[in-house]
């Protein structure tokens, strides 16, 4: 079913120019400009998985923009169970101006976007986390002064990593990705990155990846929904912890989307150190998403 609404299933649903526009608007909103452009507008927030940052930043963001957010948790909607995804999309479109959804199956965000007549924003799926990427790019621009530095991803080639790969390609940000063999970025995502700009350099050597890096980004090794793979993944990721040894010899900032598992993908001392920009990333979720919502609703 055709829809006129622009959706953000992943970050490359924006053009590189639109991405810049959203980041610029986020920066001006962060500086206190922008007013309340979404007065009387409503956001539906559909959650199949837990969240702290995504829920609170979207809900608070709508309040600050003059609008309202409705939280729909796993027991409220039962997406794909109690009711088909396409029916939920069409029903929510009757009431609200925009939908944000955090889902397991990426195909379900595609289907929501296909059937909704209002914009749909991906608040994380098993494959992508574009709102995190917006906040991360804003953070890199603020802390490194632009996208001319060197950034390394060390850890799992997961949802956060995949959107980050695409966002870096769109922004012209040089990126090296170090993952254990078998846990890399999907080939299709690497191909999309190459089409958008430049695919990242890919390695299985964390030390090589962080050499010369201005920022090193990691995320949990066991994502939501992967709990059964925990032991296998902890074994596979040995040597990939972002810790003082790995960072010795660099001045790299440390990025993490949070929540963090101290002692697994990152050491406690490193994430609590001056290097870490993780609270800035968390704060930037608010500004980036406010800008995205206002842009999507042409407000
Ligand atoms: N980074 C992030 O999306 O955090 P939450 O899972 O708490 O929303
Ligand atoms: N990769 C993590 C990100 C959480 C924000 C997960 O999917 O659980």
UniProtKB/TrEMBL annotation:
EC number, as in UniProt: 2.1.3.3
Keywords of the record: Cytoplasm, Transferase
Residues given in the record as carbamoyl phosphate binding sites: 51-54, 102, 129-132, 257-258, 285
Keyword Transferase attributed: yes
InterPro entries: Asp/Orn_carbamoyltranf_P-bd, Asp/Orn_carbamoylTrfase, Asp/Orn_carbamoylTrfase_sf, Asp_carbamoyltransf_Asp/Orn-bd, Orn/put_carbamltrans, OTCase_ArgI
GO molecular function: ornithine carbamoyltransferase activity
Subcellular location: Cytoplasm
Major localization listed first in the record, in broad terms: cytoplasm
GO biological process: L-arginine biosynthetic process via ornithine
Pfam families per the UniProt record, alphabetical: OTCace, OTCace_N
Alphabetical list of PROSITE patterns matching this protein: CARBAMOYLTRANSFERASE
Record GO cellular component, one term: cytoplasm
Binding residue positions for L-ornithine: 159, 219, 223-224
Domain spans labelled Aspartate/ornithine carbamoyltransferase carbamoyl-P binding: 6-142
Start and end residues of each Aspartate/ornithine carbamoyltransferase Asp/Orn-binding domain: 150-296
Record field: catalytic activity: carbamoyl phosphate + L-ornithine = L-citrulline + phosphate + H(+)
Family label: Belongs to the aspartate/ornithine carbamoyltransferase superfamily. OTCase family.
Protein name per Swiss-Prot or TrEMBL: Ornithine carbamoyltransferase
Origin species: Halomarina ordinaria
Organism placement in taxonomy: Archaea, Methanobacteriati, Methanobacteriota, Stenosarchaea group, Halobacteria
């Amino acid at each position: 079913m055709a829809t006129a609404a622009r959706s953000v299933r992943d970050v490359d649903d924006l053009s590189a120019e639109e991405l810049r526009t959203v980041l610029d608007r986020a920066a001006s909103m962060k500086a206190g400009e922008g007013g309340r452009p979404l007065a009387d507008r409503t956001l539906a927030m559909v959650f199949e998985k837990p969240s702290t940052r995504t829920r609170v930043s979207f809900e608070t963001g709508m309040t600050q923009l003059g609008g309202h957010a409705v939280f729909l948790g796993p027991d409220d909607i039962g997406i794909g169970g109690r009711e088909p995804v396409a029916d939920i999309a069409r029903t929510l479109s009757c009431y609200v101006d925009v939908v944000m959804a955090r889902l397991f199956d990426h195909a379900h965000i595609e289907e929501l976007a296909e059937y909704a007549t209002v914009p749909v924003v991906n608040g994380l799926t098993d494959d992508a986390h574009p709102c995190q990427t917006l906040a991360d790019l804003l953070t890199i621009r603020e802390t490194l002064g632009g996208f001319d530095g060197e950034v390394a991803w060390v850890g799992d080639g997961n949802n956060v990593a995949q959107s980050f790969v695409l966002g870096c390609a769109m922004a012209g940000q040089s990126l090296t990705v170090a993952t254990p063999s078998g846990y890399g970025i999907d080939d299709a995502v690497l191909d999309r990155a190459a089409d958008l700009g430049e695919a990242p350099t890919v390695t299985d050597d964390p030390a090589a990846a962080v050499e010369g890096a201005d920022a090193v980004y990691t995320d949990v090794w066991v994502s939501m929904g992967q709990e059964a793979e925990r032991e296998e993944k902890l074994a596979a990721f040995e040597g990939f912890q972002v810790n003082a040894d790995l960072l010795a010899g660099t001045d790299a900032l440390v990025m993490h989307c949070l929540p963090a598992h101290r002692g697994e993908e990152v050491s406690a001392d490193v994430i609590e150190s001056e290097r870490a920009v993780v609270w800035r990333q968390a704060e930037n979720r608010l500004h980036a998403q406010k800008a995205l919502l206002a842009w999507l609703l042409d407000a």
